[in-house]
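Onboarding guide, step 5: your first structure request.
Type a short instruction followed by the sequence, for example:

Predict the 3D structure of this protein.
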Amino acid sequence: MSHLFPNYARWPLAIVRGEGNYVWDEQGNKYLDFVSGIAVTSLGHAPAAVKEKLKQQLDQLWHSSNLFQHPLQEQLADKLAEISGLDRVLFCNSGAEANEAAIKLARRYAQKVLNQDRYEIITFTGSFHGRTLATLTATGQEKVKDGFAPLPEGFVTVPFQDIEALREAISSKTCAVMLELVQGEGGVNPADPEWVAQVAELCREHDLLLMIDEVQTGIGRTGSWFAFQQYGIEPDVVTVAKGLGSGFPVGAILAKEKTNEAFGPGSHGTTFGGNPLAMAAGLGTLEEIETHNLLSRVQELGDYFKEHLNRLVAQSSLVKSVRGKGLLLGLQLTIPVQEVLETTREKGVLFLPAGPDVLRILPPFTTNRSEIQHAVDVLSDVLEELEDKQKQHHSA
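The system replies with structure tokens like these:
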């Protein structure tokens, strides 16, 4: 009997080793990993340069708390400010914590800096912002809220890409809008640039913080450091986590200077946030992406992958569409995605779902064309097998 809570619908697979773009299970079977720890191991598993930084830090200091000055925090904050164009950084341990901190920042900015009684945050259907009580309430999916009532007040969810619904939802209580530019968990849904521009304009008109959740899209996943850089907008707050530490737990919120006063001493904190090991991993990750020009690689390989996936749309009646940006891609199916995932796994390629009928593809930035071709070939074979089964079933 396992003593673990059964809160994860785990696959019948125990991963015990990872190297580069591959992982191995307990039986020694090898898998091409296009899950990347859910958009985390963007440089592949155990990248040498990041590992070296962690080893150096292990010999120096593991933890001291935020009571003390942290040179590595300053260095990573400087780098994040440089690549984002934002001014202030606060480190935490996960995406949910980053979004929780953003929610607190938005409320405190309205109440302590603007001196206004505003606390509501508007989010969108299909979004996913985390599993703390505040972030699951902000999430635009009912399934994550089941059994957790009463939920905290102060959140309004409107239909994704409906500008009139957003306009009508803004009230004297609204302090911010929180938005994913590509909804990952919600089905790999990229936002329309024209709609995003309208959202940004509404935020300016009503003096609302525009908060962009880049937990899954940030740190290069869509082909730029941040997805917002492809939309021509200037967010007030950006949250990041997954791809920042190459598998080492780290998150952060980035914000404009005007919010600085809201997070004065004692306003928010975390024991482990920004610990030296996490900072070493973050610095190593950003350096590797920059040194090897991986943002351009993500753009190039994303286009290549999309081109090959689009051929599956023409080939198979089980595929509806391909969507996404960079190396955050989704294949919408006409059948439950689990049927495909189980068979591709058996054939040595790992993908993951994004809802009931979307296959999500998150390769490491270090993948190559031959691995992409192999993954598409496996997908093509699996879809053909399932299509044949359907035909046999209907003819029986």
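Each response can be followed by summary notes, for example: The chain has two domains: 15-33+294-395, 48-291.
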